[in-house]
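Allow me, if you will, to draw on your knowledge of protein folds for a short while. The matter concerns a single protein, recorded as an amino acid sequence and a row of backbone structure tokens. Could you please explain, in whatever detail you think fit, how the structure tokens follow from the sequence? I remain grateful for any guidance, and I place the record below:

…
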Amino acid sequence: MKRKLLKLTFALFATMVCSSVNATTTSGTWGDNITWTLDNGVLTLSGTGAMYDSGHYDNEFTWGTYANEITSVVIEEGITTIATMAFEMYEGLISISIPSSVTTIGEMSFEGCTNLTTVTISEGVITIGATAFDGCTSITTITIPSSVTTIVSGAFAGCNGITDVYCYADPSNLTWTMDEWFADFKDEQGTNFHVADESAWPRTNTDDSFYYLGQRVTFEEDLANISATPVEEYHWATFYDADKKYEVDANTTIYKASVTEDPKVIITAIEGNNIIPAGTAVILKSTGVPVLTETTTESTGDYSENALQGSNGTIDTDANRIYCLAYMNDKLAFYKVNGGVSVPAGKAYLHLDAGARGFYDIEEDGTTAIKNIKVGKEDNIYYDLQGRRVLYPKKGLYILNGKKVITK
């Protein structure tokens, strides 16, 4: 009897210990529109709209109690702002992922996160607030997407570990209020500032917008001029350069394409050293904005039987059936370009035979390459037999919700 009682007591104790060890998930809410969970150090924020911000530097975030346990922050699509001081002084924070739905990174939002090393800023962010990353001394690289139009004083002050900035923002549409009081990046121009065109960044005197930036960094004119379309957690783009070779970052996959008789576009991932040869048109898929850096290294990838062609800006779309990658009607596909509309230089396209349909689906290895994309409902949307959308269908045969229908 004593042995049975002892076993029962031990079993209950073991159960209590195991329950305590496994109870690693915590959750809560912030404002009326955001919920959060903390699971083994990963803080995930979900919701829609702006993150509540008192604007008086006294936000008491409900996840703040666990600041010392948070190592990674994942903000999901739908949230549009990061509030003032949302993660200030989270010294255990190592990585942060900011989605394309976020337009504003609030001031001091990551200030003093001294162990933060990985920062993903997606295409879609417009404003980086004052001292947003001030004192984040462990960051070594940062990518500024083309959507950014405002960077406020001290956004990267004290980030003396940053060796490389990859900036895709358009300098003619960028307000960067840098001044001599905020020492952004490394001292003695120790940070390489990668751009597509150095001449577009005026900095000859103190009246120039980027004068003080020029005092802090060394410009490197080695970036490809590229824009990407955010679709769920990926960014998609096409790319072509007739003369230069480029290396893509580790978060980007390179694809070539072929066209089947189905008809479909089959894309195949390129294996090798992530180098795009000169004169080769490709598709790019990335978890962030693709970073392409000029290189002299030769590619080891197999680009044979690639149907993609590259534009130099003089494609005659009136005389050819040209298809470009685009996200329309909740679908990423190759859509026919209307006559008279030019294909921008540096983009890839498909040149298909007469009689081709309005768009071509994309597949990879027999499964849809965009399987993680949420495809919206297309109720009551009509297409003709060539796959072109019809806004006002008349009498005839159409495709409706994947089936042929006759309108009378």
Notes: Helices lie at 2-22, 211-216. The CA atoms of residues 125 and 172 lie 17 Å apart. Residues 1-23, 368-379 have pLDDT under 50 and may be disordered. The longest strand covers residues 252-259.
